[in-house]
Design goal:
The complex is a heterodimer of chains A (about 210) and B (about 650).
Chain A lengths: L2 H12 L9 E7 L2 E9 L4 E3 L5 H9 L10 H5 L7 H23 L2 H31 L26 E5 L2 E7 L1 H25 L1
Antiparallel strand pairs in A: 1-2, 1-5, 2-3, 4-5
Chain B lengths: L1 H19 L17 H7 L9 E6 L6 E6 L4 E5 L21 E2 L2 E2 L9 E5 L2 E11 L4 E6 L5 E6 L6 E7 L5 E6 L3 E2 L14 E10 L6 E10 L2 E7 L7 E7 L8 H4 L5 E8 H9 L4 E13 L4 E13 L8 E7 L2 E6 L5 E6 L4 E6 H10 L2 E5 L2 E4 L1 H4 E6 L5 E6 L4 E6 L4 E6 L4 E7 L4 E5 L12 E6 L15 E7 L6 E8 L6 E5 L29 E5 L2 E9 L2 E3 L2 E6 L3 E8 L8 E5 L7 E3 L4 E6 L5 E6 L12 E7 L8 E3 L10
Parallel strand pairs in B: 14-19, 37-40, 39-45
Antiparallel strand pairs in B: 1-2, 1-35, 2-3, 4-5, 6-7, 7-8, 8-9, 9-18, 10-11, 11-13, 12-13, 13-14, 15-16, 16-17, 17-20, 18-19, 21-22, 22-23, 23-26, 24-25, 27-28, 28-29, 29-30, 31-32, 32-33, 33-34, 36-37, 37-38, 39-46, 40-43, 41-42, 41-44, 44-45
Classes of the chains: A alpha+beta (about 210), B mainly beta (about 650).
């Protein structure tokens, strides 16, 4: 097997890490939470980021400001919230991309690798946009009967609690950090590997 | 004019003389100069947010509880309720913990806690459990050092004044419980004056399950009717032996302060428990009818079971020759202490100004050579010279208890002369002495009852404080004093007040316990029959005149919080589950008119209280622990209708049956 095919093969397989590791992680610190709370966002579910029961504990705190329930299995089962469609189709999309990558590696045409990278980047951007959207919805779509209804001192409008998309933000007593998690780095590695496969393939093709 | 001046001069001289001839108005006990220099403060200062280096478990004496302090700061963290009810926590009041205080005499709400001792593995304190004895109603308790809760209490039959207890062997094979008061064994109706020769002293060995910690009485040795005061296990070379101090070998039954203080020497009873264990394993001993409770906490059911045990295995000393010996020891010894090597057994001769140091090696030889000086009730009395290593004469007055460092030194408390004395065991020489304020009882060096004392600190526990603190009327606090013993001289670092009577203590390095402590109880592991796992499971059921409320609590409401259909004469059970799964989010509940305490419920736990409404009306209940920003809103109502009314039974949260709206 050619080196470029091997690289493409590896690149596609790297995506399978998304079935095991979170894509993104939101960490919350407050005076009462010296050990932070953490929320891991996977392609198909949310998980405890730092300690046992973090997701439920964050969900519990969110109710003070009237934030909607988080899409956890419990909340879905209880009918408190609709299942998140992304959790269904993200794994399918990722699965298709892995399969496609493997097939392309087998076919061995370097140009096709570039298309794969291109599709993946587009999907990634779409995913990030979707993530941003959810953060906006969670931050602004607040229960009018919320316990704490604060007003933004500058705009005079009800205060929003949109968590940071990337980086740091202070939300009431919480310091919130939002950064890509291991899964995201595997995507980058997958893209890099596939791109290298393209370069290597083109070089050996030309040479 | 001159006369007037002379007159005043005479007055001045008289005044001067008067002031010279007065006793001091106050004995100076402050040691601000000298030892207590500025740098001492730094050595006990634990900065905000920092943690202490050691745990100290100090018994509360007549409080019946076990307190948890940090060293070197002397800060109190928790009082673990053990033998007394604790309304603050609901211990001994709620249905789940009431059985913990059941005894063969029925429910006993108070106890007298004495000697905490930490479990050991290979002669080192392991930080798994603390065992502690109750003197009045003879009992031994086991406290978990994961949850800091009392997990087990076992009653000791045929015993009275359970004092030479609850010391553990070096692999926690056994916990011992010796009787302080000799009593008829078994109890019977007889004349008190016939005590001598007829009363007995039970020394009880409790087996400890190495995994669960569960205790059971392995055997009871039916000893002569002396008073067994304190005990310590052999260790290292003397592992397999246990040593108990005795007083009242005179067997006096009245005015003991005089009549039990006649013999110049009493005994230390040396017991080869390995030999007795073997005897018992081969079918030795006799099962005798007895009645004692065994109360066990079940961590998943969050409840206690109380079982009445029916018999106990009794061993007669004469049936196991070569297992028990008496070592003559200067007058009415209190503490009976074994040094870290296991070689020296030290009798603290309370009524003699002398420390008796016996040698384990000499004891072995004496037994081999049969160097005996007669016998008492069939038990050989070893010749004093044959077992004695030496005597430290006149170290102070009223020696009570000795602990050890790793450098061959002993530290003994002297109650009467109110001091701690450091002395070298081999040389039998006093090295240093330091006053304590006042009248010290026991002392503690972390890891003291083990092969490896952690010998930086020493805590002296004092019975009298008088002027040491701000006065609080006739009843003032008792206290502990912290010394640094790492140098040649002992340095007094800190005074700190304690709960109850700080009777005895055990200490251990914090890192052996802290990382393993429980933070929450997992809801999924909760098998309490009335537990709810979510609000949707909350409900109210009526069974005759019993009303069972399956209630939940979570920030910041109860579910259900409106209940109707309860009637005067009903017996209402609040089965309350704290649904929180977050560290340090307990909730409490109190009901107006309930003839019991509040309940303080940790995350994931279920507890039950009973309320018997007597008046018609709408009665509120509320959360008693400041749980959250909405704590003040955490409340609910129960409507009580007249006896026989037909108000339907309803229960709601925000107008709906819990779980129905979601």
């Amino acid at each position: 097997m050619k080196l470029s095919s091997v690289l493409m093969f590896i690149g596609a397989l790297l995506l399978s890490a998304l079935f095991f590791f979170p894509l993104w992680k939101i960490t919350l610190l407050a005076p009462q939470y010296p050990d932070p709370l953490g929320l891991n966002i996977h392609i198909d579910h949310l998980s405890d980021g730092v300690q046992f029961n973090d997701v439920n504990n964050i969900d519990l705190l969110n109710h003070y400001i009237g934030m909607a329930h988080l899409p956890t299995k419990i909340n879905v089962d209880k009918g408190v919230i609709k299942p998140m469609k992304e959790f269904t189709y993200f794994p399918i999309v990722v699965g298709i991309m892995i399969l496609l990558g493997l097939v392309l590696a087998f076919i061995g045409k370097p140009k096709l690798y570039l298309y794969w990278v291109f599709i993946l980047v587009i999907l990634g951007i779409a995913g990030l946009y979707d993530f941003y959207n959810w953060l906006y919805i969670y931050g602004h779509n607040l229960d009018p009967n919320a316990i704490l209804k604060l007003t933004d001192p500058i705009t005079g409008k009800p205060m929003g609690y949109q968590p940071p998309f990337y980086g740091y933000k202070k939300l009431l007593n919480f310091e919130v950090y939002s950064y890509p998690a291991i899964g995201a780095y595997f995507i980058v590695a997958g893209i890099a590997s596939a791109f290298l496969a393209f370069l290597q393939g083109r070089k050996s093709h030309n040479g | 004019m001159k006369q007037l001046i002379n007159y005043f001069m005479v007055l001045a001289v008289i005044g001067f003389l008067a002031s010279c001839n007065q006793a001091p108005t106050k004995k100076s006990t402050s040691s601000k100069s000298g030892a207590l220099s500025g740098s001492v403060a730094e050595r006990v200062y634990v900065a905000p947010g920092e943690h202490d280096s050691h745990y100290a478990f100090i018994s509360g004496g007549f409080s019946g509880q076990l307190s948890v302090y940090g060293l070197p700061s002397g800060r109190l963290f928790r009082v673990v309720p053990v033998f007394s009810q604790d309304p603050e926590k609901g211990y001994g009041y709620n249905q789940e913990t009431k059985p913990m205080l059941m005894t063969s005499h029925g429910f006993v709400p108070w106890g007298d806690s004495h000697h905490p001792d930490i479990s050991q593995t290979n002669g080192t304190v392991d930080g798994r459990w603390v065992f502690i004895n109750e003197n009045n109603t003879p009992r031994i308790a086991r406290v978990s050092l994961k949850t800091f809760e009392t997990e087990e209490i076992i009653e000791i039959p045929n015993s009275a004044g359970n004092h030479s207890s609850s010391f553990v062997t070096e692999n926690t094979e056994y916990v011992v419980a010796g009787t302080r008061f000799a009593v008829p064994f078994p109890q019977r109706d007889m004349s008190i004056k016939d005590m001598k020769g007829n009363f007995k002293g039970a020394l009880t060995f409790l087996k400890v399950d190495p995994t669960t910690g569960h205790m059971s009485i392995a055997f009871q040795i039916k000893m002569p009717g002396f008073n067994y005061d304190l005990a310590h296990p052999g260790r290292g070379k003397s592992h397999g032996w246990f040593f108990f101090s005795t007083y009242n070998t005179e067997e006096a039954n009245s005015l003991l302060e005089v009549n039990a203080s006649q013999n110049d020497k009493d005994f230390i009873a040396a017991i080869n428990w390995k030999k007795i264990e073997e005897y018992v394993a081969n079918g030795g001993g006799k099962k005798v009818a007895a009645k004692y409770t065994h109360n066990l906490w079940h961590d998943n059911q969050h409840a206690t079971t109380s079982t009445m045990e029916k018999e106990v295995l009794v061993v007669e000393p004469k049936d196991v020759p070569g297992a028990i010996f008496f070592l003559p020891t200067a007058k009415s010894p209190h503490g009976c202490d074994v040094d870290p090597s296991g070689e020296y057994i030290i009798g603290n001769g309370k009524l003699a100004a002398a420390m008796t140091v016996h040698s384990f090696s000499k004891l072995q030889k004496a037994i081999e050579d049969k160097a005996f000086d007669g016998e008492k009730y069939g038990i050989p009395v070893v010749k004093f010279e044959a077992v004695n290593y030496g005597v430290l004469e006149n170290p102070g007055l009223g020696p009570l208890h000795t602990e050890f460092d790793t450098r061959g030194n002993a530290y003994t408390t002297f109650f009467i002369s109110s001091e701690v004395v450091k002395w070298n065991i081999k040389d039998l020489k006093v090295i240093d002495r330091h006053p304590v304020y006042y009248s010290v009882g026991h002392l503690m060096i972390p890891g003291g009852n083990s092969q490896h004392p952690d010998d930086k600190y020493l805590v002296a526990m004092n019975k009298i404080t008088k002027d040491r603190y701000l006065s609080t009327g006739p009843e003032v606090c008792q206290s502990a004093q912290l010394f640094d013993i790492s140098g040649e001289k002992m340095e007094l670092l800190l005074d700190f007040p304690t709960i109850g009577e700080p009777h005895y203590a055990a200490g251990i390095a914090a890192d052996k316990i802290e990382p393993k402590t429980t933070k929450i109880y997992k809801l999924e592991e909760n098998t309490h029959p009335y537990a709810v796992k979510s609000e949707a499971e909350t409900k109210v059921e009526r069974k005759g005149n019993e009303v069972h409320i399956y209630m939940s609590m979570i920030r910041s409401h109860f579910s259900p919080d409106n209940i109707e259909g309860v009637k005067v004469g009903d017996k209402v059970f609040f089965h309350v589950t704290n649904l929180e799964q977050d560290y340090d989010v307990p909730h409490g509940i109190a009901m107006i008119g309930a003839n019991t305490s509040e309940m303080l419920i940790m995350p994931g736990r279920t507890a039950t209280m009973i309320w018997e409404p007597k008046e018609v009306g709408v009665w509120p209940f509320y959360c008693t622990d400041f749980c959250s920003a909405l704590h003040q809103e955490m409340q609910g109502y129960i409507r009580v209708s007249p006896r026989g009314s037909n108000t339907p039974l309803t229960f709601t949260l925000d107008g709906d049956v819990p779980g129905q709206d979601e």
